[in-house]
Amino acid sequence: MLSRIGSVRSSSLNLGLGLVKRWLWSKSETGQRFAVVWGNGDYGRLGLQSLDSHWSPAPVLCSTFRDQGLRAIACGGAHTLFLTETGRVYATGLNDFGQLGTTDDAAYSTEMSPGKTIGSVRECSGLYTLKLILHLLKLIKEPVEVSGLPKEISQISAGYYHSSAITVDGELYMWGRNANGQLGLGKRALKAVPLPTKVESLIGLTIKMAALGSEHSIAVSDVGEVLSWGGGEYGRLGHGNDSTSFAFFKSTSEYTPRLIKKLEGIKVKYVAAGLLHSACIDENGLVFVFGERPADILGFREENSEATLSLIAKIPYSEEVACGGYHTCVVTSGGELYTWGSNENGCLGIGTTSVFHQPERVQGPFLESIVSQVSCGWKHTAAISEGKVFTWGWGGSHGTFAVDGHSSGGQLGHGSDVDYMKPTMINLGKDVKALQVSCGFNHTGAILEHI
Question: Is the model's pTM score more than 0.85?
Answer without folding.
Answer: yes
